[in-house]
Amino acid sequence: MSATTTGPFAEGKAQFDPAEAVEDPFQAGPGEGPGAAEGHVYTVTGQDWDTIADDQAERGDERIVVNMGPQHPSTHGVLRLILEMEGESVTEARCGIGYLHTGIEKNMEFRSWTQGVTFCTRMDYLSPFSQETSYCLGVERLLDIEDQIPERASVIRVMMLELNRISSHLVCLATGGMEIGALTVMTIGFREREMVLDVFEAITGLRMNHAYIRPGGVAQDLPQGGLAKVKDLVAWMRKHLPEYAAFCNENPIFKGRLVGVGELDLAGCLALGVTGPPLRATGYDWDLRKKQPYCGYETYDFDVQTWDTPDAYGRFRIRVNEMWESLKIVEQCVERLERTEGQPVMVADNKIAWPAQLAVGSDGMGNSNEHIRHIMGQSMEALIHHFKLVTEGFRVPPGQAYVPVESPRGELGAHVVSDGGTRPFRAHFRDPSFSNLQAMPALCEGSMVSDVVVAVASLDPVMGGVDR
Amino acid sequence: MSGPTNADNAKATSDAAQAEKVTGESDANAPVKGAVPEGESAPDRGTEAGSKTGSATPVSTASTDAAEDRAETEQVEQGETAVATTQRDTEVLRVQHGMFGVKGSGDTSGYGGLSRVIDFPAAGQPPYGGWWDEVHERMTALSPNSSDIIEKVVVHRGEITFHVVRSQLATLARHLRDDPHLRFEFCSSVSGVHYPGDAGRELHAVYHLQSMTYNRRIRLEVSVPDADPHIPSVVPTYPGADWHERETYDMFGIVFDGHPALTRILMPDDWPGHPQRKDYPLGGIDVEYHGASVPPPDQRRTYS
């Protein structure tokens, strides 16, 4: 940038001089080449707002470009917003993303198909099961074993997906509330979420990044007492979910901040690729769980939530209502899981099913003793089979598949390409946060800078998913 | 794929009509077909990915294999008919030898003599069944010389893929969105795939389109040579494809002509190379523990 032509770093100055820095290191001198077009640059170091405000008042220039983020508490992680403002109104807004790009898709090409789950679960860290499900459904479609997935595995998947929807929406409400000063919503939101994560930990062994849903089924059956924990959780939620409605629904301050903010109508949503609660807030009941059911969603009784105001408030109400619907689905899952006790949770094909079985050892985790005894002491073939499947993995017939699922944030789809090998040839994730965030300028331009925070929060972007 | 539900149709149709009003405004930006890019940053073809990672990374076995496979694939393709470049039933991905990914050592397993040609699902012929035929017929009806535009149609695992030529992509996308019988008003995603072995069509851009009106999903695939990685942008038709095309450019170096601001999106602006290409190394260092050392993932044995 032209700014580097002046300031302390110009003319070969290697040392950083704090005295100069405070004085505006990147200031382009008057008429000094192209740098002059950039305008005056303030470097905010904290506790100097008065000086800056006074300076700017003297300058008499109301047009300011503010760099909001990437380290900002209300940008949901490392999202950078570049706002051009006249006074406090945002005239133009753009997103800068990529700060959390970790090359997950590239890494997946160097691991086996099963290990891929371990990577994609880390993308959108608030809804790991959605990525796992979408990826596994794609792999299963390529393997042509879609109709061989045991019923119990599908039910467990649905249960985890819906619990995950609750925990994800809770974080959305909690952080969204925190950003507008509703700290109680934040504390109770994270309290409830922790209850869900406790159940996840009991079932999968991990609070986040589970890698629990695997091609062919799920990693292991529910543990002893797992269903009881789920039932307790449902009871807890039924007791505490009304608090959100009581705190927020008719709260004049809350409504004052959310109503009419970040509006995006149906045409805008379709054009900009926005799905999930923002799309349903326009009144269109587009939910892939109903429209293109997967994992047997067509057999569950639940309603798609819509709202009639496509603003931040409508999205909030949809998320709260969806948590209730998710609870309904979880209850139906619990009933089905009781009925299918003892049935397999992994596809019967031993050339695909993960051979290892886990059990809780004295150290809290480990392989099942029975399985170890079998492969180490009884069957050489079992050992070879275990070794080959774990190190080499299974082959997936060539082709490509795209199976979208309705994640808490909208359509999440894994485009899975196989070249007939033991590794994904390409795995691309259509992450709903990524697409929805494109609508940020449409939501924010023309509004106050304080509304930007609310509008972005109502999209609920998770940068882990955006940047992958 | 579930069929359309009547209850949704009326609403979605009117909704889609609304969508057209908005998106139609960008018509002025519609790219001229086959337009030469103006002002876009050129794909960093000269910049080798390896130069950034520096550290004289030894060539991974994976990429050596890829190079060998490419050579083999080319041989296979030459063995086929001359017209195979545009009209071939199967797409040979690679030829695999042996079973365990080991090369250069003696054949201790007895499987070393195995040789398998791995090809992509073959192109289908109509009728494809169900609404696929409706969509295909409508697409052909809308394009005067459809056989030149739709190279082949692949139906595989319940999904339909239309391989189309790049020159007509923008027009086709507009038809797909606006035609009342098609109504693919939603572009879910644009993604790239790099097939180093697919000589002359190394880079593929894959579009997933969703018709909410009819509840149908199709896939478009456009293949371009590595030497000329230009594809018309669909952003004038699907503004939501903006970031997706930027990501595909960032990761594969496919230049989308007519995109309003084709810049890198995930990688830093001055990053050399395009990371998702197969010739771009994953990178990584050995991990040592108790004297034993584990090589980085791209240098471990590949069984593919």
From TrEMBL, chain A:
<dbReference type="GO" id="GO:0005886">
    <property type="term" value="C:plasma membrane"/>
</dbReference>
<dbReference type="GO" id="GO:0048038">
    <property type="term" value="F:quinone binding"/>
</dbReference>
<dbReference type="InterPro" id="IPR022885">
    <property type="entry name" value="NDH1_su_D/H"/>
</dbReference>
<keyword id="KW-0874">Quinone</keyword>
<protein>
    <recommendedName>
        <fullName>NADH-quinone oxidoreductase subunit D</fullName>
        <ecNumber>7.1.1.-</ecNumber>
    </recommendedName>
</protein>
<dbReference type="GO" id="GO:0051287">
    <property type="term" value="F:NAD binding"/>
</dbReference>
<keyword id="KW-0472">Membrane</keyword>
<comment type="function">
    <text>NDH-1 shuttles electrons from NADH, via FMN and iron-sulfur (Fe-S) centers, to quinones in the respiratory chain. The immediate electron acceptor for the enzyme in this species is believed to be a menaquinone. Couples the redox reaction to proton translocation (for every two electrons transferred, four hydrogen ions are translocated across the cytoplasmic membrane), and thus conserves the redox energy in a proton gradient.</text>
</comment>
<dbReference type="InterPro" id="IPR029014">
    <property type="entry name" value="NiFe-Hase_large"/>
</dbReference>
<keyword id="KW-1278">Translocase</keyword>
<dbReference type="InterPro" id="IPR014029">
    <property type="entry name" value="NADH_UbQ_OxRdtase_49kDa_CS"/>
</dbReference>
<keyword id="KW-1003">Cell membrane</keyword>
<comment type="similarity">
    <text>Belongs to the complex I 49 kDa subunit family.</text>
</comment>
<dbReference type="InterPro" id="IPR001135">
    <property type="entry name" value="NADH_Q_OxRdtase_suD"/>
</dbReference>
<dbReference type="Pfam" id="PF00346">
    <property type="entry name" value="Complex1_49kDa"/>
</dbReference>
<feature type="domain" description="NADH-quinone oxidoreductase subunit D">
    <location>
        <begin position="180"/>
        <end position="468"/>
    </location>
</feature>
<keyword id="KW-0520">NAD</keyword>
<comment type="subunit">
    <text>NDH-1 is composed of 14 different subunits. Subunits NuoB, C, D, E, F, and G constitute the peripheral sector of the complex.</text>
</comment>
<keyword id="KW-0813">Transport</keyword>
<dbReference type="GO" id="GO:0050136">
    <property type="term" value="F:NADH dehydrogenase (quinone) (non-electrogenic) activity"/>
</dbReference>
TrEMBL record, chain B:
<protein>
    <recommendedName>
        <fullName>NADH-quinone oxidoreductase subunit C</fullName>
        <ecNumber>7.1.1.-</ecNumber>
    </recommendedName>
</protein>
<feature type="compositionally biased region" description="Polar residues">
    <location>
        <begin position="1"/>
        <end position="16"/>
    </location>
</feature>
<feature type="region of interest" description="Disordered">
    <location>
        <begin position="1"/>
        <end position="86"/>
    </location>
</feature>
<keyword id="KW-0472">Membrane</keyword>
<dbReference type="GO" id="GO:0005886">
    <property type="term" value="C:plasma membrane"/>
</dbReference>
<dbReference type="InterPro" id="IPR001268">
    <property type="entry name" value="NADH_UbQ_OxRdtase_30kDa_su"/>
</dbReference>
<comment type="similarity">
    <text>Belongs to the complex I 30 kDa subunit family.</text>
</comment>
<feature type="compositionally biased region" description="Polar residues">
    <location>
        <begin position="50"/>
        <end position="64"/>
    </location>
</feature>
<keyword id="KW-1278">Translocase</keyword>
<dbReference type="InterPro" id="IPR037232">
    <property type="entry name" value="NADH_quin_OxRdtase_su_C/D-like"/>
</dbReference>
<dbReference type="GO" id="GO:0048038">
    <property type="term" value="F:quinone binding"/>
</dbReference>
<dbReference type="Pfam" id="PF00329">
    <property type="entry name" value="Complex1_30kDa"/>
</dbReference>
<feature type="domain" description="NADH:ubiquinone oxidoreductase 30kDa subunit">
    <location>
        <begin position="163"/>
        <end position="284"/>
    </location>
</feature>
<keyword id="KW-0520">NAD</keyword>
<keyword id="KW-0813">Transport</keyword>
<dbReference type="GO" id="GO:0008137">
    <property type="term" value="F:NADH dehydrogenase (ubiquinone) activity"/>
</dbReference>
<dbReference type="InterPro" id="IPR010218">
    <property type="entry name" value="NADH_DH_suC"/>
</dbReference>
<keyword id="KW-0874">Quinone</keyword>
<keyword id="KW-1003">Cell membrane</keyword>
<dbReference type="GO" id="GO:0050136">
    <property type="term" value="F:NADH dehydrogenase (quinone) (non-electrogenic) activity"/>
</dbReference>
<comment type="subunit">
    <text>NDH-1 is composed of 14 different subunits. Subunits NuoB, C, D, E, F, and G constitute the peripheral sector of the complex.</text>
</comment>
<comment type="function">
    <text>NDH-1 shuttles electrons from NADH, via FMN and iron-sulfur (Fe-S) centers, to quinones in the respiratory chain. The immediate electron acceptor for the enzyme in this species is believed to be a menaquinone. Couples the redox reaction to proton translocation (for every two electrons transferred, four hydrogen ions are translocated across the cytoplasmic membrane), and thus conserves the redox energy in a proton gradient.</text>
</comment>
